[in-house]
Every structure is written in C-alpha cells, then in structure tokens.
Amino acid sequence: MPSRRRFLQTAALGAAAGALSPSVLSALDRSEVPNPEPQWIAKDYRRLKPAVFQWPSERAVEEHMRLYRGYVNKANELWQKIAELDRDPAKANATYSDIRVMKVELTFAIGGVKNHEVYFDILGGNGGTPTGRLAEAIQKNFGSFEAWAADLKATGIAARGWVWLAYDFEKKTLFNYIGDSQNLFPIWNASPILALDMFEHAFFMDYGANRAAYIDDFLKHIDWAAVSANFERVLRMASL
C-alpha cells in the first residue's frame, strides 16, 4: 500500500497535470472554469447538542451562534461570486484585484465556519479528563493532563484569536497552537481536535476581561468523548 506522503505527492502531480489539459486550458480561455458548488450549512446546535447552550450563558451562546451563521452565509456568497468571476489573468493583481480579494476573504469566512464548528462540537460536556489513546498521547506529549491544561491556559491568555490542540501527521505529536485570526497560522499537515475561541465575543459578555476565568470554565465544559472521536479520526487519517 502506498504511503500517505506518496499519495499526496501523486495527487499533487495529478492535479498539476490536469491543470495543463486542453479541456481546462480551453475553459480558461473562455473564463468558464467549472466550479463545484458545495453549500456550507450551519449546524443546528440547539437540536444536535443542546448542552452547548448551558455555558457560558444562553444569550452569549445565541450571539456567538449568530456570528457563526454569518460566516456560513458569507462563505456561500463568496463561493458563488468566485464561480462567476472573470478569470482573465490580465485582470489579476497581487496588490488589488477581484480574484485576490475574494479568494483571501473566502479563507477567512471558511475559517470562521470550521473553527467555530470544532469549538462548538467539543463543548457541552462535564469536563473531567480524557481517557484511552487521547489520554496516553497527552501524557506523552505534555507530561500530564495538568501540564496540558496549564499550557492551554497560558496559550489562550497569549492568543489574540484561536487556540487549537492539533495533531501533526509528520511529527505524530499533539501541540497547542495559536491562530490570531480565522485564517492565520494554520499548520500544514496537522488537524485540530479541540478549539478554544479567545476572541472577545466568546467571553466578554459573561467574563469581562477575565480571560483566565473563561478558560478555567471552558475546561470544565469540554466533551472529552467528542475530542477523543476527533483524535481517533485523525489517527485513522494518519494511517492511510
């Protein structure tokens, strides 16, 4: 069975070859590159995971959900506008052009969707500690659960936006990463299994500027079964 790295290399080469095919070049000439039209659909967390609304406060969560749904709507809007763009290379420009602006802002909108879904998906639990292979990985990579939690708290206080506990497929390690915006500092070949939103909208309504208290309570509301499910999923991906 080919290794995952070999598969990615082969896929990249195949994509490059496809980009030079006559049919695609013809489509480029007509500015009619085919675009799939996936629709991002906002998850109904009140139905799927009502326990999420128990913290921080229902009003704060509702406002947070409103922001999340806004990212979903904007991602769909931008995707459609990009599909309709004139792709004439003569009109592209790295300082300012429609294709640059739309594709950059699309990454922000999609980041807003995916980051929030990781965050909401792992909330609604009773805290505690992880078990199984996730617990073993945290022990191995951080020394103890308590050391991981202290690192997460320090990372969160230092962050301007997001914190992710992510698995690096190449190093085979877990690490608490900072991302200061929806689309900044993603680590290639790594997958988040837990997200902590450190933008003010996530905590200011209930905690004011007390970021540390917000993180302490976040730790008490993690659904470790959901985090473990994310971890098992990335381990399966790593074995491909």
Main beta sheet strand tally, sense and closure: 3 strands, antiparallel
Number of helices: 10
SSE order: HHHHHHHEEEHHH
- Strand-residue fraction? 5-15%
How many domains is the backbone divided into? Answer: 2
| CATH arch. level architecture of the largest domain | 3-Layer(bab) Sandwich
SS elements, strand count? 3
Superfamily at the CATH H level of the largest domain? Answer: Iron/manganese superoxide dismutase, C-terminal domain
Class based on secondary structure composition and strand pairing: mainly alpha
- For the largest beta sheet, what order do the strands appear in spatially? 2-1-3
**Uncertain parts:** 1-31
Fold topology:
Blueprint: H1 4-19, H2 22-29, H3 45-48, H4 58-83, H5 98-121, H6 132-142, H7 145-158, E1 162-168, E2 173-179, E3 190-197, H8 204-207, H9 211-220, H10 224-238
Antiparallel strand pairs: 1-2, 1-3
Folded structure, characterized:
- This protein has ten helices and three strands.
- It has 240 residues and is mostly helical.
- It folds into two domains: 34 residues; 199 residues, Iron/manganese superoxide dismutase, C-terminal domain (minor pseudopilin epsh fold, 3-Layer(bab) Sandwich).
- Strands 2-1-3 form a three-stranded antiparallel sheet.
- Strand 1 and strand 2 form a beta hairpin.
- Helix 4 runs antiparallel to helix 5 and helix 7 packs antiparallel against helix 9.
- The longest helix is centred in the first third of the chain and has 26 residues.
